[in-house]
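Propose amino acids for all 135 sites.
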């Protein structure tokens, strides 16, 4: 495009700047989608189910005691299912990105332990400690 007037040249330069920005932005976005990937938190999850023949209250209190021993202090208890003889205790670890849930089902005679965390080694070590704990 040949510009003979000063205003045409200014308009042409302005359009070229916009096109350059659009091309650069497209190139960066394309490179991101081809070469980069967004970071994703993928938790490591370990779970086990055990037979349990004690009363529901003994199970939930014992679970809280075991969790306190390994760095958990604030508990969320689901009391809406107590009439079905089922209790749930959940807690987040005080210093690590780990959550534990213990489900006590007196009616079925089982207890389920589930632990999820972002650091595989820490999560597994904690899982093994809770797996060996008695409540």
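Proposal:
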């Amino acid at each position: 495009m040949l510009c003979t007037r000063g205003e045409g040249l200014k308009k042409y330069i302005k359009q070229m700047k916009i096109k350059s920005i659009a091309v650069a932005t497209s190139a960066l976005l394309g490179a991101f989608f081809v070469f980069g990937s967004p970071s994703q938190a993928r938790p490591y999850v370990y779970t086990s189910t055990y037979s349990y023949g004690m009363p529901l209250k003994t199970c939930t209190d014992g679970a809280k005691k075991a969790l306190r021993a390994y760095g958990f202090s604030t508990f969320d208890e689901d009391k809406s299912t107590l009439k079905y003889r089922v209790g749930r205790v959940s807690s987040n670890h005080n210093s690590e990105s780990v959550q534990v849930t213990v489900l006590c089902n007196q009616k079925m005679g089982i207890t389920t332990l589930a632990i999820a965390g972002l650091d595989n080694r820490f999560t597994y070590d904690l899982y093994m400690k809770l797996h060996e704990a008695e409540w």
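The chain has a mean pLDDT of 82. DSSP finds three helices and five strands in the chain.
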